[in-house]
Design brief:
By secondary structure, the protein is mainly α. It has 13 helices and 5 strands. The protein has a 3-stranded parallel beta sheet. Strands 4-5 form a two-stranded parallel ribbon. The longest helix has 28 residues. The structure holds adenosine-5'-tetraphosphate.
């Protein structure tokens, strides 16, 4: 029903995902998304981007945005993204993202954007709401469809946004013919929604300040241990995986489970005391992040390498994005340049 993709790896699935350079990367980003990106590269035709245009929806200082974009790319490389096995680039280096977003903004509706949970959360209590904050889910749809992505590996908080991308792509195709590939979200079974250690009712996030509740991927072992030891739990004293009634404790069980390749309920069965669970969780997280931190230190010693890698990624991304954009622009009736 929908178009088959015309690119150079017809036997591989096309994968696309992105991350905002809106703050220091945390455990939620790593467990919910990045570690799965690392697994997906090589076996899939994978495109990963630092979505700097999305970060403009926040109050972010220009110099800080530039620095964070670079640092985020460095973190992704340290986490294991390999430019020989995936395409890593910066969103704003490929102009078609903004162009495609306009075509899709003329397809999406106010109603569906108003229903976005993240829009409601981010604008709660704000008197003056930026248009960018309202329409960024459509830019995200453009990010995805430009690469003919079959799969979008993301954390659970992005489920609704990928659903929107599907709806918009399907509507576009109904009106203009089979132009866009309709994507599907891939969400991990464990670690899909890592919660803030101090406020376990909300997700760990870059842009919401919670220094003690957020484990950064570059936190040193003492800092990781301190944050886990201070994590909010409950007073009933029973170690049980029950996210609804015991969100703090269940979050720790989930972290230990994902760090050791087990299921949270299975992990719970091995503990009777919260203190022991916290000690083992902290140790497991320190070990999980140790190789990434070592690679990060090596990469930081050669700062000139990253811009060249990003330029290579952008050149490849541009080729794919330009072909899709041209196809879409022609379908809607834009007169192409002579
Ligand atoms: N807590 C989380 N648990 C699991 N996955 C998560 N992701 C984000 N938080 C968690 C996933 O990380 C990828 C990048 O998302 P992002 O750049 O939007 O990250 P963020 O930490 O959510 O950043 P912000 O700036 O704080 O964004 P908002 O304001 O949107 O929350 C995605 O795949 C995401 O699912």
């Amino acid at each position: 029903m929908f178009p088959t993709r015309a690119y150079d790896c017809p036997l591989m699935a096309r994968v696309l995902s992105g991350i905002q350079p809106s703050g220091d990367l945390h455990l939620g980003n790593y467990l919910g998304a990045i570690r799965n990106w690392v697994e997906d590269q090589g076996d899939n035709d994978a495109f990963y981007c630092v979505v700097d245009l999305h970060a403009l929806t926040l109050d972010i200082d220009p110099a800080e945005l530039r620095a964070r974009t670079y640092d985020t790319a460095l973190d992704l490389l340290a986490a294991g993204l390999d430019p020989d096995r995936c395409t890593l680039f910066v969103q704003s280096h490929v102009v078609q993202h903004s162009q495609m977003a306009w075509l899709l903004e003329c397809t999406a509706t106010m109603g569906e954007l108003q229903r976005m949970t993240q829009f409601k959360e981010k604008t709660a209590g704000q008197e003056s709401i930026r248009v960018g904050l309202f329409i960024y889910p459509v830019l995200q749809t453009a990010d995805i469809v430009l690469y003919d992505a079959d799969r979008v590996p993301v954390g659970d908080d992005q489920r609704q946004h990928v659903e929107l991308a599907r709806d918009v792509a399907i509507r576009f195709n109904r009106r203009f013919g089979d132009v866009l590939v309709v994507p599907t979200a891939t969400i991990p079974t464990t670690g899909a929604r890592v919660m803030d250690l101090q406020h376990p009712e909300r997700k760990m996030s870059k842009s919401v300040s919670s220094p003690l509740g957020t484990i950064l991927i570059l936190d040193d072992p003492a800092e990781i241990t301190r944050k886990v030891k201070k994590a909010v739990t409950d007073t009933d004293g029973e170690v049980r995986y029950d996210p609804e009634h015991k969100p703090g404790l269940s979050n720790l069980l989930e972290l230990l489970a994902v760090a050791t390749g087990r299921k949270p309920a299975e992990v719970a069965a091995g503990y009777t005391r919260y203190g022991d669970l916290k000690t083992d969780t902290a140790e497991a997280l320190v070990e999980l992040l140790r190789p990434l931190q070592a690679r990060r230190a090596e990469l930081a010693a050669d700062p000139g390498a990253v811009p060249a890698l990003l330029a290579r990624g952008a050149a490849k991304a541009r080729e794919v994005a330009a072909a899709t954009y041209d196809r879409a622009a022609e379908a809607v009736g834009l007169l192409g340049p002579a």
